[in-house]
Amino acid sequence: MNFEEKFNKDLANIKNDLAIENIFINDDDISMLKKYSNNELSLNEAINKIVKVELN
Description:
Elements: H1 3-20, H2 27-37, H3 43-55
């Protein structure tokens, strides 16, 4: 299984888990997860982006 297939499988599981809690993710969230999984974005940077979006 290549990276993209594994990422998509993991993402589907995450989406299902979050949907149970009435939390839904969009394409921007997925893009951020991909950047994080590719080490293009640190955990702190991801958290800061999430906080900024929630504050707006």
